[in-house]
Amino acid sequence: MIDLGISKLALIGAVALVVIGPEKLPRVARTVGTLLGKAQRYVADVKAEVSRSMELEELKKMKESVETAARDVESSVASGASDFEKSWSEATSGLDGSAFSSDTSEALSRLGTDGFPSYKHPRKNWRIKQKAMPQWYKARTGVRTRAQSGAARVARFRPRPSSASR
């Protein structure tokens, strides 16, 4: 990097004052400042782009290593599953249909034809039932539809003074 001290900057400023002149020096200094700013921003953008590309390469390498590990795990799980299937078929080969207990037969009867439990409708939700009641019925039976504070309820039902007594 260029080593610019205060003495060198003062010498450059004096030469510029003599060569350019005092009238044009502020405009030239402004132009030089904007050009230096643009150059610094350009250098910063290039550095950021280089660092992003390096991070991208690192991420690609990491992705490849994770994918290979996932493939290894998948193959080991598949081989383990096939071993389990073989051992399961060997263990259950001697059993016949009469060996099931009543609990097992009940569980199998709840299963549908596709092997999943059959649909059972849930009980009705009382909140939905309350919301389904029409407003005119609520008004006739006295069901409260709006929440009201105690003070507001007292003020609402307080007897009004008659205008004749005033």
Automatic annotation (TrEMBL):
InterPro entries listed in its UniProt record: TatA/B/E (IPR003369), TatB (IPR018448)
Keyword Cell inner membrane annotated: yes
Alphabetical keyword list: Cell inner membrane, Cell membrane, Membrane, Protein transport, Translocation, Transmembrane, Transmembrane helix, Transport
Membrane topology per record: Single-pass membrane protein
Top-rank lineage group of the source organism: Bacteria
Keyword Transmembrane appears in the UniProt entry: yes
Localisation per UniProt entry: Cell membrane; Membrane
GO-annotated cellular components: TAT protein transport complex
GO terms classed as biological process: protein transport by the Tat complex
Disordered: annotated span: 140-166
MF-aspect GO terms: protein transmembrane transporter activity
Purpose: Part of the twin-arginine translocation (Tat) system that transports large folded proteins containing a characteristic twin-arginine motif in their signal peptide across membranes. Together with TatC, TatB is part of a receptor directly interacting with Tat signal peptides. TatB may form an oligomeric binding site that transiently accommodates folded Tat precursor proteins before their translocation.
Family under the similarity heading: Belongs to the TatB family.
Subunit structure: The Tat system comprises two distinct complexes: a TatABC complex, containing multiple copies of TatA, TatB and TatC subunits, and a separate TatA complex, containing only TatA subunits. Substrates initially bind to the TatABC complex, which probably triggers association of the separate TatA complex to form the active translocon.
NCBIfam families cross-referenced by the UniProt entry: tatB
Official protein name in the record: Sec-independent protein translocase protein TatB
Species annotation: Hydrogenophaga pseudoflava (Pseudomonas carboxydoflava)
Gene: tatB
